[in-house]
Write a structure and sequence with these properties.
Structural class: alpha+beta
CATH superfamily: Nucleoside Triphosphate Pyrophosphohydrolase
Strand content: 35-45%
Number of domains: 1
Amino acid sequence: MSAGLLLYRRRTAGGLEVLVAFPGGPYFARKDEGSWTIPKGEYEPDEEALAAAYREFAEEMGSPAPGGERIDLGAITQKGGKVVRAWAVEGDLDISTVVSNEFEIEWPPRSGRRASFPEIARAEWVSPDAARRKLKPTQIPFVDRLEAALAEAGRS
């Protein structure tokens, strides 16, 4: 199981924007649309999903997520079978300050050498429509659910 946060903000002229993140590492170097994600990560069975979502956001974005009201976006199942639970939180983040934690893999494959890469290479604020193009297809429902929740609350 994984848990994550979909950060959103409202712009006076441009409407709603959501924060999406591009994975780091060599496997994503030549990819773009359909490869982005919300900041998220795995958590242990004894860890609360929401606490894990906040922890993962801080690790991957390099700053804590804003506090405030959360919108439960439910769960989705990704292509490989991983279940991701997410919440939306309104706030802002200067994307120029994003500094992700790193992971290590053997690179190049079968070389015997280890290399470190950031979990998140970069982040962008995008419109919901752009997010639908950029995100992994299985994560698009998070954007749809956020828009529906804001419309229902009269805050879109």
